[in-house]
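Hmm, what's this shape?
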Amino acid sequence: MGRTAGMNDIEIVTVVGARPQFIKAAAVSRAVAALNAAGGDRRVRERIVHTGQHYDENMSKVFFEELQIPRPAVNLEVGSGPHGRQTAAMLERLEEVLLEGRPDWVLVYGDTNSTLAGALAAAKLHVPVAHVEAGMRSFNRRMPEEINRVVADCLSTLLFCSTDTAVGNLAREGITGGVHKVGDVMYDSVLFRAALAEKSSRVMDELQLEPKSFYLATVHRAENTDQPGRLAGIIAAFERAGRPVVLPLHPRTRKVLGAPLAKIGGQVRVIEPVSYLDMLMLERGARLILTDSGGVQKEAYWFDVPCVTLRDETEWVELVTAGGNRLVGADTESILSAVAAFERDGARLPADRPADLYGDGASAEKIVGILLGPPTR
């Protein structure tokens, strides 16, 4: 990477590998670009490394283009595979990248294998780690994502938390140094991109959907896709939901379903994965959302759309407390009961729900400002 920047400048390697990380990284990269364009005394040089964890064109390349963030300087092209093999391949290749020219920070996001590998590779080379979305806990150690986020937090020098809950989780684990509540960078991204989506996306017209006439669903987490009984219960609920269910199908879920995919009945409409802007328009237009995605849970709340979460627990407990999210697991009748409960309320969220659960839309600027603070080494 080289050291041609000024003495007060900093260099960051950003590690991304999955769709939600692209969205989060876009907000921070935009803040970096704005800071550099302002012409101050200090600049940030960012080098984006894509692990290749998601390699499908609809799940990676299109997001870099649509979100207008720099194309990755490096694509490790790791691809899919068992957790151990995938993480090991990332570790080996990330170490080579970091040894080329040690950055001041390695920035990781969320809770994927890319997060874990980025944190481990950096820590072993004594490069400080900054973790965006630190402190989130499901308290379910059977989830690979939970292991990833716990380990990443233990290795991080800076821990950027979205909520007070996350700060409290870290404190209970004895982590208090370097912890900053900054809000949620995904909220930054939604605020920035929603207007663009409305102007440029044609997905509602292409799918011939009327606003508030359909339910939107996503299913991708291993706890659901890797257990046939859970996935069958979820699909059965979609088939009996009573309204059209639009299901952009994640590659992992498509692979698991295989031949039975053609037998899905009711009013379930299976479509290919969609771009970020198209997804925002589908979320905004949906009457109700059913999902096991953490990001989609939050986006539903920001668009004032009720959410039924297809998991036994959620990291985003504030959404449940605020009345915007019902946690139901994978049982068919529980899912349908939650849908019916929202419908009895007119598929509307409580009028007195908090508006600022996840910050003020300036989380990325706060993160960049903290990274520019006094050097830690």
Notes: The first strand starts at residue 10 and ends at 16. The chain is about 45% helix and 15% strand. The chain has a mean pLDDT of 91. Residues 10-184+359-371 form a domain with the Rossmann fold fold (CATH 3.40.50.2000).
